[in-house]
């Protein structure tokens, strides 16, 4: 089995290298070598994006969400009060993951993320693939903003790694804050 | 710190009480687990789980369906990726998460880095599989079918988890466990050739020995999806569960078929009360902590419950609905049964055992985070001149004659004094070590067994795949001796004083069957 796994990762190396630029949306190169990513990728999601040192950034209103992410949610995901609350719950959960310093905190944060996802699934439309994609895009953009510096990105993934092996069941009601 | 935690946990166990509950067979139900692939964060895995629920619903053919994620994430990736990102000149890291989630176009440097990273990585799935298997086990013992939808790398995890699970379940209960593989890099699906789906554009087919593609992917307009990039073709949500392609219908049909095919587990009350409980009846010494303050507590498991050192007891005969394994031990693949008890508010306690010992002492959650009693290797014993005090035989399974061969790994005084091997014989009610002999049936008192895994986790982990056992003095003031055996081969032996030190004595005690 281990040998097979090694083959697996080796193959990924060989194959994905060979296939990059083949035309698939993920594999199409937007930049090469040391050239930064495409300009469209670097377009700010929100004005005055918080790139300050530290994990927490600026959260002047102390609501558990960085102020720039508050603004992002206000401008993109506030069509309804339910949508706004759902987005905010996801944002708080992602920030908890970034802040997690111990396996216990990481597990609590992951449970918060799981619960927030359940809330999103429950409250936002999900009958169609388009509906699901809207909700997923919302969470992707929020967590991308949350982990927008090297320090925050590392912390975010460290939190994922710390809960590897965990099983996430459906959160118990109420799933929404 | 750990010592304190262990004490808290043990105290917690003594506080457990089980409500009077009836043992009612649960209704027909199944849990659909999603076992994710690499570079998937918890939230993305939840998105996949959500897509499964959206498609399969909460009820199917009389089954109530629950959903869960058996999560895995490759360790160490984040730091490396962040470093590579910095080196590539990217100033804002938010794009990485977008790329990892299939949103926006990933630049070539990123793809190249990821490929090379994967090339260097070797997965260690042991930790995750033990934990995942705990949950699968728990569901089946609670009367629920388990169907794992495993995507990409997740297939490796579920395959190993199935092997682990198979050691724990008896009486055909494994037939309640099913897998459906998606984009499979492995060469089997839980030991079989299927069922699975890998589309013809998916890059995973190039993994040596991977199961071959078995689905020619078409767009929803019936045209062959030869224009689809091989990575895009690999994505769970964007391809396999997408309405844009024809494979989603087949995938859902396959999952439903597995739900139908999995056998409804037998009533699990009997499993614990009649089977496991009878297996573990005996008296145990649970050892937690480190010198100089390790704690040793006696726990007696009877046919009806657990009796603790302070004489408090827990009725285990009606524990079915109280059993809820929330968090398994994460670093052991060595368990046969478990006891999990709720009631410590707001934490929980539990214990794991096999037929002769408690080998994973209580875990807890809530304010008492999961902790395991552990003792690191310490110096080998410096004396063995005292006679042992063995009061009851626990040795029947190991009847035979063994030769203990001293090797350099242990400074065992007794063997230092002898150039020739010492015979170690177990014969019915007696044990003989060299010219010393002990009667094992003295007094009829229960022998106290030590939870040796707490002291010697790596040894237990290495050898637990076959039955083994230990014995020790019931008198903590006297030295004890203990060993672990497998197939008439003594793999490990140790002797020390209970309250003095934890020892590992790596004698190579191969059975000579004299």
- As a percent range, the share of strand residues of chain A is under 5%
Mean pLDDT of chain A, nearest integer? 78
Distance between the termini of chain B: 47 Å
Q: Distance N terminus to C terminus of chain A?
A: 44 Å
Strand order of the largest sheet of chain B: 2-3-1-4-5-6
Q: What share of residues of chain B is helical?
A: 25-40%
SSE pattern of chain A: HHHHHHHE
How much helical structure, as a percent, in the residues of chain A?
55-70%
Write down the Rg of chain B.
26 Å
Q: Structural class of the secondary elements of chain A?
A: mainly alpha
Shape of chain B: globular
Number of strands of chain A: 1
What is the number of E strands of chain B? 20
Largest sheet of chain A, in brief, is: none
Task: List the uncertain runs of chain A.
Answer: 1-40
Largest inter-chain contact set: A-B, 89 and 102 residues
Taking all Cα atoms into account, the compactness measure Rg of chain A is 18 Å
The portion of residues forming beta strands of chain B comes to 15-25%
The chain-level structural class of chain B is alpha/beta
What does this structure look like?
The complex is a heterodimer of chains A (177) and B (514). With 177 residues, chain A is mainly α. Chain A is built from seven helices and one strand. The N and C termini of chain A lie far apart (44 Å). The model of chain A is unreliable at 1-40 (pLDDT under 50). In chain B, helix 3 (77-87) packs antiparallel against helix 5 (108-120) and helix 6 (126-141) packs across helix 7 (154-168). Helices cover 26% and strands 20% of the residues of chain B. The model of chain B is unreliable at 1-23, 270-276, 284-296, 317-430 and 438-514 (pLDDT under 50). A six-stranded mixed β-sheet of chain B has the order 2-3-1-4-5-6, with helices on both faces. In chain B, strands 10-9-8-7-18 form a five-stranded mixed β-sheet. Chain B is an alpha/beta fold and 514 residues long. The chains are: A mainly alpha (177), B alpha/beta (514).
């Amino acid at each position: 089995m281990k040998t097979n796994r090694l083959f697996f990762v080796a193959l990924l190396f060989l194959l994905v290298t060979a296939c990059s630029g083949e035309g698939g949306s993920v594999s199409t190169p937007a930049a090469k070598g040391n050239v930064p990513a495409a300009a469209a990728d670097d377009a700010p999601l929100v004005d005055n994006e918080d790139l300050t040192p530290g994990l927490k950034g600026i959260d002047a209103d102390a609501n558990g969400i960085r102020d720039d992410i508050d603004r992002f949610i206000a401008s993109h995901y506030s069509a309804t009060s339910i949508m706004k609350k759902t987005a905010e719950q996801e944002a708080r959960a992602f920030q908890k993951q970034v802040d997690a310093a111990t396996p216990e905190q990481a597990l609590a944060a992951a449970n918060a993320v799981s619960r927030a996802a359940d809330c999103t699934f429950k409250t936002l439309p999900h009958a169609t693939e388009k509906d699901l994609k809207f909700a997923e895009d919302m969470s992707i953009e929020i967590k991308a903003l949350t982990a927008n510096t090297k320090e925050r990105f590392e912390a975010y993934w460290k939190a994922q790694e710390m809960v590897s092996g965990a099983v996430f069941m459906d959160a118990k009601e109420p799933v929404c804050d | 710190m750990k010592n304190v935690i262990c004490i808290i946990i043990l105290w917690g166990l003594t506080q457990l009480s089980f409500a009077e509950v009836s043992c009612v067979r649960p209704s027909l139900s199944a849990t659909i687990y999603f076992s994710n692939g690499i570079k998937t964060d918890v939230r993305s895995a939840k998105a996949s789980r959500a897509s499964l629920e959206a498609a399969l619903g909460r009820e199917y053919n009389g089954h109530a369906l629950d959903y869960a994620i058996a999560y895995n994430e490759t360790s160490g990736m984040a730091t490396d990726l962040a470093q590579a990102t910095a080196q590539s000149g990217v100033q804002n890291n938010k794009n990485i998460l977008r790329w990892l989630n299939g949103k926006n176009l990933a630049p070539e440097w990123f793809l190249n880095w990821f490929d090379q990273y994967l090339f260097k990585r070797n997965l260690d799935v042991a930790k995750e599989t033990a934990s995942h298997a705990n949950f699968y086990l728990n569901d089946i013992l609670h009367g629920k079918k388990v169907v794992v939808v495993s995507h990409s790398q997740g297939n490796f995890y579920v395959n190993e988890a199935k092997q682990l699970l198979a050691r724990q379940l008896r009486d055909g209960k494994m037939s309640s466990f099913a897998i459906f593989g998606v984009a499979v890099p492995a060469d089997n699906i839980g030991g079989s050739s299927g069922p699975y789906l890998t589309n013809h554009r998916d890059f995973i087919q190039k993994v040596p020995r991977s199961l071959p593609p078995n689905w020619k992917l078409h767009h929803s307009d019936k045209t062959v999806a030869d224009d689809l990039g091989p990575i895009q073709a690999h994505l769970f949500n964007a391809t396999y569960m997408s309405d844009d392609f024809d494979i989603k219908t087949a995938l859902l049909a396959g999952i439903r078929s597995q739900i139908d095919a999995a056998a409804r587990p037998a009533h699990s009350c009997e499993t614990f009360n009649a089977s496991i409980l009878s297996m573990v009846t005996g008296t145990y010494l649970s050892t937690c902590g480190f010198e100089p303050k390790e704690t040793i507590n006696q726990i007696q498991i009877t046919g009806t419950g657990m009796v603790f050192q302070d004489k408090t007891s827990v009725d285990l005969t009606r524990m079915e609905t109280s059993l809820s394994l929330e968090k398994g031990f994460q670093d052991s693949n060595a368990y046969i049964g478990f006891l999990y008890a709720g009631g410590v508010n707001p934490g929980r306690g539990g214990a794991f055992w096999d037929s002769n010992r408690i080998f994973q002492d209580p875990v807890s959650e809530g304010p008492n985070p999961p902790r395991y009693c552990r003792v690191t290797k310490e110096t080998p014993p410096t004396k063995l001149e005292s006679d042992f005090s063995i009061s009851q035989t626990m040795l029947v399974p190991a009847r035979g004659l063994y030769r203990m061969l001293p090797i350099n790994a242990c400074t065992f005084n007794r063997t230092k004094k002898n150039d020739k091997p010492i015979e170690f014989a177990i014969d019915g009610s007696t044990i003989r070590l060299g010219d010393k002999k002990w009667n094992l049936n003295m007094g009829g008192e229960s022998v106290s067994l030590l939870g040796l895994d707490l002291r010697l986790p790596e040894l237990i982990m290495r050898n637990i795949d076959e039955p083994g056992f230990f014995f020790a003095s019931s008198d903590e003031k006297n030295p004890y001796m203990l060993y672990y055996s497998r197939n008439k081969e003594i793999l490990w032996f140790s002797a020390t004083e209970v309250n003095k030190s934890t020892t590992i004595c790596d004698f190579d005690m191969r059975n000579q069957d004299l």
